[in-house]
Design brief:
Chain A: InterPro entries: CAP/MinC_C, MinC, MinC_C_sf, Septum_form_inhib_MinC_C. The complex is a heterodimer of chains A (230) and B (276). By secondary structure, chain A is of the alpha/beta class. Helix content of chain A is 20%, strand content 33%. Chain A is built from five helices and 15 strands. In chain A, strand 14 and strand 15 form a beta hairpin. With 276 residues, chain B is of the alpha/beta class. Chain B has 13 helices and eight strands. The chains are: A alpha/beta (230), B alpha/beta (276).
């Protein structure tokens, strides 16, 4: 919330929906503010009766005494209906997005993930427009191709081509990562050294080259503060 | 019709294709051995050489000098099935239908083979087809007539790759193949220089029905034309016999893993806790 500008009048009035919003400068002496309010309200007496008044001192907390005193003054002098502090203002865009996500905005999102179960054998080729999820293994000589990410819930021993044609933000993940070749976007990594043990690893692009890391250790999406649609 | 023949008509035989994708992994040897072993169990068996143009199952079985008609003649109706099937004189109930040496694989079509397979099924308990290497016409002809398949694979990366492809093609034709791992050298597996059958099953993920060790007797047997299963002290022959038993109903027969044959004194030393 922006602080009030000092060189503007200490009391301003604005119609807001069904209420009157009064912006006050709390740094001014209370008598002066009351005098100003009186001056303003006198001119629009007929509007003030039973009106909802919002007193905005520029901050969400503090200045209770000031607000209480001025509220009492307005109620007694001009018979306004109610006096309150401004409601919690509209959330900034990021917070709003977060709120939406927390409210399961993905419920309406139709994801196009190709999810397959079973083994992809040599000579077979699986192509997905967007993300590809395989619950099974990919054998050597097999090829899996996706427009987005590739997730293999099993052993990847074949070729995985993700982010086609040119998305380098995607990842290739396998619970046992032993591919013959990985392609992400237009970047190719061949002859990756085999991992000594079964590790959930993933490949992603970093500074124009493909990097393979332990998925649980690197936890690439764990740092995102809330769930997002990918 | 005798009682025996009536029974045979009622009980349809099983048609099994023996394939591998890659060449030289032991399909022909396996076909000959399994055919002989199943016949020794008392079943009426025919082995068919589907490698038209490159026949050699007859040589391995030692029946090459008795060929008059071949599978192309039988399928095209130039001769009767009985005329084309050569009876083995050493093993009762074992028959061979040889391939044609002069034709090429395009001479037969899958449709013709399906018909021929139905005819064979009525006459025999087991029909074993020796599929040629590759996945072209010869493979298609063999698979069309079969309702079961055995994939032979050696512990080599190339062989596993081709077997994997073939298994995929068999699944696409609604055949669930079984796996035989051939030519295992236990010493090399132990040293880690050879793929273990566990790794292979891990990749291929089909039912394993036998592990066959490397055996010099195989070469001797194919050269002399004496069936391997008739030779005593052949480790490969014994392994094939056990596979035949498994195919013939003894499905719970445990699969023996070939073990390295240590030297006699070394064995004793190991027992006593010395040596190595």
């Amino acid at each position: 919330m922006k602080k009030m500008n000092q060189d503007k009048t200490p009391v301003r009035i604005k119609g807001m929906g069904n209420s009157l919003c009064i912006t006050l400068d709390p740094s001014q002496p209370i008598d002066y503010l009351q005098k100003e309010l009186h001056r303003l309200f006198k001119r629009m007496k007929h509007l003030a009766v039973n009106a909802k008044v919002i007193l905005d001192v520029g901050e969400l907390e503090g200045h209770e005494e000031l607000v209480e005193k001025l509220g009492k003054f307005l109620k007694e002098t001009f018979a306004v209906g109610s006096v309150s502090r401004p409601p919690v203002k509209q959330l900034p865009s990021e917070e709003r997005r977060r709120k939406q996500d927390m409210e399961c905005s993905w419920g309406r999102y139709h994801s196009d993930v190709l999810m397959l179960t079973g083994r992809v054998r040599a000579g077979q080729k699986v192509t997905a427009k967007n993300h590809l999820l395989i619950l099974g293994d990919v054998n050597p000589g097999a090829e899996v191709l996706a427009g987005g990410d590739i997730f293999i819930m099993g052993t990847l021993r074949g070729t995985a081509i993700a982010g086609q044609p040119d998305n380098e933000e995607v990842i290739v993940l396998a619970l046992d990562f032993q591919p013959i070749q990985i392609q992400i976007g237009k970047i190719v990594a061949a002859g990756l050294p085999p991992s000594p043990e079964k590790l959930a690893e993933f490949a992603h692009v970093e500074n124009g080259t493909i990097v393979v890391e332990d998925y649980l250790e690197a936890d690439p999406f764990g740092r995102l503060p809330w769930p997002q649609v990918r | 019709m005798t009682n025996d023949e009536v029974e045979r008509c009622n009980l349809e035989g099983r048609t099994i294709v023996i394939t591998s994708g890659k060449g030289g992994v032991g399909k022909t040897t396996a076909t000959a051995c399994l055919g002989a072993a199943i016949a020794l169990e008392g079943k009426r068996v025919v082995v068919i050489d589907m490698d038209i143009g490159l026949r050699n199952l007859d040589v391995v079985m030692g029946l090459e000098n008795r060929i008059i008609f071949n599978i192309v003649d039988a399928v095209k109706g130039k001769c009767k099935l009985k005329q084309a099937a050569i009876k083995d004189r050493r093993i009762d109930n074992l028959f061979l239908i040889p391939a044609s040496q002069s034709d090429n694989k395009g001479v037969l079509t899958p449709k013709e083979m399906v018909q021929f397979g139905e005819e064979l099924r009525k006459q025999f308990d087991f029909v074993l087809m020796d599929c040629p290497a590759g996945i072209e016409r010869g493979f298609e002809n063999s698979v069309a007539a079969a309702d079961e398949a055995i994939v032979i694979c050696t512990p080599e990366v190339a062989s596993v790759r081709d077997a994997d492809r073939v298994i995929g093609l068999l699944y696409a034709r609604s055949i669930t193949p079984k796996l035989v791992v051939n030519r295992i050298v236990p010493e090399m597996v132990k040293r880690g220089d050879m793929l273990s059958h566990l790794d292979m099953v891990d990749v291929l993920s089909v039912e394993l029905i036998g592990l066959v060790p490397m055996d010099d007797q195989v070469v001797i047997s194919s050269n002399t034309g004496i069936p391997l299963v008739l030779q005593k002290r052949s480790r490969a022959g014994e392994a094939f016999q056990r596979i035949a038993m498994r195919l013939n109903g003894m499905t719970d027969l445990p699969i023996e893993v070939p073990q390295a044959q240590g030297h006699f004194w070394k064995k004793i030393g190991n027992k006593l806790g010395i040596g190595k």
